[in-house]
Amino acid sequence: MDENRVDIRQAPYKLPTDVKEMDRLGIQHTIWSLMIGGLFPISVNDKVHHLLNVGASQATVLDVGCGSAIWAIGMANMFTNARVVGLDLNTQTFSDAPENFSFIQGDLSYTLPEFTGQADIVHCRCVAQHVKDPQALVRMLADVLRPGGLLLLADGDWIVYDKHRKLVEPFKWWESSTSMGKPMLHEGDARGRSWYAGWLDFFGNLTRSKDYRQIEELVKNVETLNILHSRRYLSPINWPGEGIENGEALGKVLNVNQRYFFFGAKEIALKAGLSQQMIEIWGRHYEEEVDSGHFYNVWHYLTAQK
Ligand SMILES: C[S@@+](CC[C@H](N)C(=O)[O-])C[C@H]1O[C@@H](n2cnc3c(N)ncnc32)[C@H](O)[C@@H]1O
């Protein structure tokens, strides 16, 4: 790597990258679309159309850490005159991609600088917490935008709220008596704390960079970016929530997503020291809570202009 480049990668990326995980990201894409009202929030609708439909030269959209590229392909289909580029460490089969979509495989530390000052829109969803240096990533996102370009930055949170929107206390396996000397989970281990919130907390601690900050804070530290909107979204799981737009649909999709998520995270849990039997016990409690509880998951979405 040349000296001027910042190495943002935290090797290796810890979530799975198989077809099942791409399916889950497809479900998660539906969740985002239901929450924000489409591929981007209505509040930037005019800006997006202006940036992508106006101008003599072809507009460029970058989807940074695109995964299955479900968002990028959606944009390429919607804005057929724009060039939409997906960037990711891992390649997938992009079977239904239109011609104005292309993909570049590689670490963002290397692939992003090639686009300095070229992008009209940069989208980066659920990536910042997985890289070693999230602040450097956000600076690089600003660098690739043209002046006037738009940043669409999104991330999930690992906290859980109850139906009164109060924080649910997670069961912390590693703090429990069973974690070290007695490697087994017992029914009473959670002591009134949530196994569901505990799984998310456990997983967040395993995968999130120590230097991660909320996306709003990361963007505020970049002088060239002006925040247009920054919003927290709540998604109900297995119930419609209260006062939540598209709550009915979200509740159903979240129920499916969270089940996928538990099983997708199993490999990582095994590597972190949980036994198969412990995972089965945790999984049973997790499902019981998701089926009977009234939880919300928390997400963050921000738009900014250079
Ligand atoms: C949770 S997925 C999100 C995928 C997609 N943005 C979405 O919302 O559906 C995170 C993606 O970031 C990619 N990623 C993580 N670190 C990366 C890096 N240093 N360089 C390139 N891609 C990276 C992963 O390979 C993965 O596809």
Summarize the structure.
With 306 residues, this protein is α/β, with parallel strands linked by helices.
- Assign the CATH topology: Rossmann fold
Mind telling me the C-alpha Rg?
Answer: 20 Å
Task: Name the helicity range.
Answer: 25-40%
Low-confidence stretches: none
Discrete helix count? 10
Percent of residues in β-strands: 15-25%
Number of domains: 1
Features:
Rossmann fold; 10 helices; binds S-adenosylmethionine
Protein model, in words:
Keywords: Methyltransferase, Transferase. GO terms for molecular function: methyltransferase activity. This is S-adenosyl-L-methionine-dependent methyltransferase. The chain has a single domain, classed as 3-Layer(aba) Sandwich (Rossmann fold). A seven-stranded mixed beta sheet has the order 3-2-1-4-5-7-6. With about 300 residues, it is of the alpha/beta class. The protein is globular and about 65 Å long. The chain has ten helices and seven strands. The two termini are about 25 Å apart. The longest helix is centred in the first third of the chain and has 18 residues. Helices cover about 35% and strands about 20% of the residues. Strand 1, helix 3 and strand 2 form a beta-alpha-beta unit. It binds S-adenosylmethionine. S-adenosylmethionine binds next to helix 1.
